[in-house]
């Protein structure tokens, strides 16, 4: 699992690049909420490309292993998201606001995708 722990770190870089593209690029034309929504979708696509690469080149040993990989990456993602957010001085309410689907915030799709994508790509690879 150490390999998969290390393979999580490039996802941080991918997320930072994605956020930078949003903030320095299309946010001024789309507006705050639509830019965050679009950014969530682009991050899912970028993560899909990366996770498919990882699963192809470092295949999990089994379905259970793929599920455990997704769980590991989910925990790391949420720990970073909330830990770094709190470190930066954001309140719990501010941090949780990004997960409010009723207000159009789609960010919850990111941890869900990170959790299930390794399993889905593992299953596709078995075909």
TrEMBL record:
Q: What are the record keywords, sorted?
A: Membrane, Transmembrane, Transmembrane helix
Transmembrane ranges, per UniProt, are: 35-55, 67-84, 104-122
Q: Which organism is it from?
A: Flaviaesturariibacter amylovorans
State the protein's name: Uncharacterized protein
